Amino acid sequence: MQVVGQRLKRKGNCLKDEDIVLQFHIKISNIKRFFVYGGYDLKDGVRSNLYSIDLTIPEPIWECFDIKGMVPPPAYRLSSAISNNKLYIIGGVVNNEAVNTIYSIDLDTYEGALIKPGGIALPKIDSHVSVCSQKNPNIIYIYGGYAGNQKTSTVYTYDISSNIISRLKTKLPRPAPRSCHSAVIYNEQIYIFGGSNKNNEKLNDLWSLNISSDTWTKIENPTNQGPSVFLK
Known about the structure:
With 232 residues, the protein is an all-beta fold. Helix content is 0%, strand content 43%. It has a domain of 150 residues: Kelch-type beta propeller (Neuraminidase). Strand 22 and strand 23 form a beta hairpin.
């Protein structure tokens, strides 16, 4: 399967411009579709468009979907997770300020909603990551990024079923505070790679968080070879 170019099939009120160059956006897949949302377009500024590719067809093309209901504002440096066929959009930068909002978009109806969770207040956060538990898809884990203009290594959880945000008390040692890192979850282990530290130095360390024991483990690289990466 090969995807060529960035030509978009218009739906609803999507923009006419077919040549979109994005940074600081979110990208996520639910097995059948690959989604791109928000970000900063080098030509037109901050976006709130939802684009998608159907991964199940031989020659997929980009599609742009019109979000109904409560439409999230244009944002970048945000994070996302998919649970029960809903896309959750967490934090980010809106109007040049970090926010702590959580929006959901139903991926069947493309209906947007603003969520007002209970529990502790999520800090205004950007340049962080979010992943959804495979064993319990109602739990979203939120890690790192800028919180209150400082880089953090705090882990928060959002329980969709109870609509509660909590702070996860992980055991030492922990990764250094960071932003613009990447994350995946596999077998109930959250893997955190790279980013930039408090001194804005690029990182190439790899950590795993066991979400059953709340324990971090640094995965050593004996050769100390590999990329030093922070994501824009």
